[in-house]
Amino acid sequence: MQGYFRKRGSTWSFTIDIGIDLKTGKRRQKTRSGFKTKKEAQLEAAKLQQALAEGTFINEKDTMFKEFVQSWLKQYRSTVKVSTVRVREHESGKLLTYFEGLKVRQITRKMYQDLLYDLFEQGYALNTISGIHSTGRMIFKKAIELEVIKSDPTQFAKLPRLQKTVEELESEEEVIKYLEKEELVIFLRTAREQGLDRDYEIFLTLAYSGLRVGELCALMWKDLSFEDYTIGVTKTYYNPRNITHDYQILPPKTKSSRRIIELDPIVFKELQRLKVKQNELKMLHRNTYYDKDFVFAKIGKYLGYPELIKTIQNRMSRLLKLSGLNPALTPHSLRHTHTSLLAEAGVGIHEIMERLGHIEDDITKRVYLHVTKTMKTEASKKFGELMRNL
Questions:
Q1: Domain 65-163 classified CATH 3.40.30.10?
Q2: Tell me, what's the pLDDT at 368?
Q3: Could you tell me if 48 and 30 are in contact, meaning their C-beta atoms sit under 8 angstroms apart?
Q4: How many CB atoms within 10 Å of residue 133?
């Protein structure tokens, strides 16, 4: 196996034959440089020769990291939802901040680990760093697959961890906030008596169904069965810039998110009234109404367009203040409220998961366990009181 060593300036390099080009029939060679001594160059050349002999050699390419990320994103776009692509673009952008001027093969494990720690020191949330790391792992895994590199710099990377106080660890055991049954009654009464247009119908549906707010905004009348009192959940609403006319209707979050759920007739009674009002508006504004069959369609300037998630969040904040309830709650809190009420009614955790469109969800489990634990404690107290009265 032919090869030679050369000293240029203060560093050594070597060039070695790595085989024959099948297209041209000419020798293929590999050159590596930057070694402080000839011995270091010889050791690396020996490793390369061994890899060639064992058939494990990969001829790393000189692809720039920026170019590889762009090509990876182009391929990735064809496999996932646009909302997921948006996240990956943002996360890969953070990686480019550090590695833009480097070749993929130049990025070492230490460089990648230092990136994660640097993000942490800059104050990025651990969830954000974890997302960036997930994107990094996907990019370098593809680079391995395409034989751009032979060693994955993300393989042994560790995410930074906060050193939590005892108080913080104890607070983690607290169950996610939600409305108690009596509070939900107050909230819905406030929505009915002091709510803005469609507030009562929106929050009644969320509370009784456990829908994600994106699923609610995407609901169409064709998804509702007034005979069976069921709703078919098959899609979700996506509008990250909160521009009313610039929305997208996407497939649901996961396969388990596709589901049919039964609702109390009281919800359909209110939705029927909403439908009548909506049909009247369609007749009055037949030439301008944006008629795409949305249940919770806007009125006013963008008549017929699906309601913005941000608007629903703002309206809930207003109602919470009016009703004197926890202002930190959100529309998503109504999913937790729904979970707690189902648990209190004796519905099993698997049935609740199915209704909410989950396969696994830690928060739902925590709410469920909190409620059922309280119920068991109350049952034990009642039994003790009964025995003491005998």
A1: no
A2: 84
A3: yes
A4: 20
Q: Where are the beta strands (DSSP E) in the chain?
A: 3-8, 11-20, 27-35, 224-225, 230-233, 236-238, 248-250, 259-262
Question: In this predicted structure, what is the pLDDT of residue 1?
Answer: 47
User: How many angstroms separate the Cα of 198 from the Cα of each of 65, 258, 273, 320?
Assistant: 50, 25, 11, 16
Mean pLDDT of the chain: 87
**pLDDT(111) > 80:** yes
- Check if the beta carbon of residue 282 is closer than 8 Å to that of residue 291: yes
Cα 318 to Cα 304: distance, rounded to the nearest angstrom: 23
Enumerate the domain spans of the chain.
Answer: 3-41, 65-163, 181-322
pLDDT at 332: 94
Distance of CA 239 to the CA centre of its chain: 15
Surface-to-core class of residue 276, CB atoms within 10 Å of its CB (0-12 exposed, 13-18 middle, 19+ buried): exposed
pLDDT more than 90, % of the chain: 57
Q: CA 182, CA 177: separation in Å to the nearest integer? A: 14
| The length of the chain, given as a count of residues | 390
Average pLDDT over residues 141-165: 84
Residue carrying the six token digits 């521009």: 243
Q: Which CATH architecture has domain 181-322?
A: Orthogonal Bundle (1.10)
Q: Are 39 and 31 within 8 A, CB to CB? A: no
Q: How far, CA to CA in Å, does 204 sit from each of 149, 198, 267, 310?
A: 55, 10, 7, 18
Which H or E run contains 141? helix 126-145
Q: How far apart are CA 7 and CA 190, in angstroms?
A: 82
User: For 319-326, which contacts have Cβ atoms below 8 Å and span 24 or more sequence positions?
Assistant: 319/187, 319/190, 319/191, 319/194, 319/195, 319/199, 319/203, 320/187, 322/190, 322/194, 323/186, 323/187, 323/189, 323/190, 324/186, 325/179, 325/183, 325/186, 325/187, 326/177, 326/179
